[in-house]
């Protein structure tokens, strides 16, 4: 664990303690379960976003991907009777294709990630709205898919499966990022693409893979969200989710300049964001202020982190000076 | 010509401490109007720190600055500018999306009218005499993107003059200039001096220092080690002070004569010179020097051979076998490595630990079950640290904290931990201090003696002639000649570099 992660963990505990003192419902099993579910859902695609950010890129299309693939998944399973495992495979396959498209446009055609994924944001949202003719996609009345439901919205010992899914994904991605060749190469490409290329690293492949990972995790999240909301309203479903993901990654220590970040940090960032949502609800703050609270806390967090860093540098300087002055 | 108020600047007992490093320790320096002071020292000796203190970018930990009799603890950027201190940076600070006069008046634009719109005409008019003073060939409205590196430097000097500079600090101004451009710059320095402006000249190119300075101040390990007056400024004296010992003769002959070509490049064409082709051999066990003027296409050729930039045609044989190289990965697989010209851009990742940099090119070899073993990474990095004498006590430290010479050794360590057949060194000692240079040459020689083909691109004449076993000279994408050791001379290399044909010896 890095120092940043520990700091973030402490912040989460402190905020939690304050909320609990003001409203003990915070630690009630129902509230914890619901919050864990949301952490799982948002954490899933925030991890993917973090990988893209670590290459120095960004993926703005995540929310629209969640809407489009959510619509398609609900329709496939609910309307066309596609067996759900097959539907799931198709959705994830579409995620791979979307990620490949982004990655190839960015590496081969040298377009900027911001532009490519902004166009993605518009295109996928537009397709979702056009395909459904603005109507809400939902499962037929009375239908039920016990296994699918168990997998996505079920709970074991009170722990939502979305949260467990996120933990599993996080564990796998933690190993990938911190302990595989690909992960080291990802950080290298994010920090200094030129030097990475001169070391024989296939920088295009690494970058493309980051976008594929991001889109695949978004497609998995799309299934979980669709099952959670049970119906997908194509113009509002998943709106701004890319920003939640970016916020979680930045809170978790990812630098938008690339090359830095940790999976634990991103997960903790997602936890903090949901905790803040929860805070707004539990402390009776008007929910219209939701975004303002989140924005303020992120700003304070990043500011505090900066201050701590320069404080440490100053301390080190003083210590070095002390050593010098000793005979 | 604006009258320059005489300058009297003294630094006394300046000390600057960073975490873990003492960059400057009780350094003193004096600069008077119309004086050219050479500031010398190996990399990491504290020259840049000292100059940044003058520029107001760094606050000294202790010591004082005395300007025209007035005493300061530290300058801020504004005070420094008001004092008339201007910089001509190693990395140029000009904006190539603007024209010359916009650059000169950046931040002090002339405005007119109630809307305070910029007055281009007035600025162009004011820029003209400044450009004339530095003897530059461009006009106020010339876009900077069309200027050569040397011209951009002149632009920076003009900018300094526009700010009524009394002291111009030049940090390695000639490191990327051609010979004639360098001479032009030295002339400009003489002109500045005649106008009563003081110049601090920082350079590793000692012959230039010898030519242009009135006095040389030498720093070593953050301390003053001595001062040389005009007559005493000689090559040997400067080197002796900088490194504290005499430098041995550069050239060591190979232990076994090289016979068999290990790298053959045939009919090779690069993008910027599509109608020219180059061909040459590098023998196993030799150091082949590649000389030429800046812009001859040497770096592009090297990068194209290495697969890092596109080639237009031609073939590469390694050990007599034809290899297809389309990316650095292909080259590395074939045992052909490149130590690039710009090590901070392409050689290593400065923010990464040494051990990651050393193992980056064959990380796959450090895995078991797909997981990277840090223990094995550390073991290999440690071994390289010992053999290459990389000065750090911990390979987990980031590369950023090391001097240029040690960084270059880390780049080398990356390749030496693998199995090199050919290593191309592109300007291997640029910006590296004298002591570390000798070590790098020693490493190149021992590589050659192990049967590796070493190809060394260098613009430093002393280096090409002192280190190579054989020299090829390149001009505009063509190999214009080849010199065996007994025909090495500065004039032979230069003549080939400008395209003259040599008489047979």
What attributes characterize this protein structure?
heterodimer; A: 327 residues; mainly alpha; ABC transporter involved in vitamin B12 uptake, BtuC; two-stranded antiparallel sheet; 13 helices; 2% strand; globular; B: 505 residues; alpha/beta; Rossmann fold; 3 domains; 6-stranded mixed β-sheet; 17 helices; 24 strands; 32% helix
Task: Tell me what the structure shows.
The complex is a heterodimer of chains A (327) and B (505). With 327 residues, chain A is an all-alpha fold. Chain A has a single domain, classed as ABC transporter involved in vitamin B12 uptake, BtuC, CATH 1.10.3470. Chain A is built from 13 helices and four strands. Chain A has helices at 3-22, 29-54, 62-79, 84-107, 113-132, 146-153, 161-179, 181-191, 193-198, 203-229, 241-251, 263-282, 290-325, and strands at 137-138, 155-156, 159-160, 231-232. In chain A, a hairpin with a 2-residue loop joins strand 2 (155-156) and strand 3. Chain A is globular. The mean pLDDT of chain A is 92. Chain B is an alpha/beta fold and 505 residues long. Chain B folds into three domains: 8-243, Rossmann fold (3-Layer(aba) Sandwich); 260-335 and 420-505, P-loop containing nucleotide triphosphate hydrolases (Rossmann fold), CATH 3.40.50.300; 349-418, no CATH class. In chain B, the strands form six sheets. Chain B has a six-stranded mixed sheet, sandwiched between helices. The mean pLDDT of chain B is 87. In chain B, helix 4 packs across helix 5 (149-162) and helix 13 (374-388) crosses helix 14 (404-416). In chain B, a hairpin with a 2-residue loop joins strand 19 (367-368) and strand 20. Chain A binds chain B through residues 175, 179-181, 184-185, 187-188, 191-192, 194-202, 259, 313, 316-317, 319-321, 324, and chain B through 15, 17-22, 25, 61, 306, 308, 327-329, 331-333, 338, 340, 345-352, 356, 360-361, 363-364, 367, 370-372, 414.
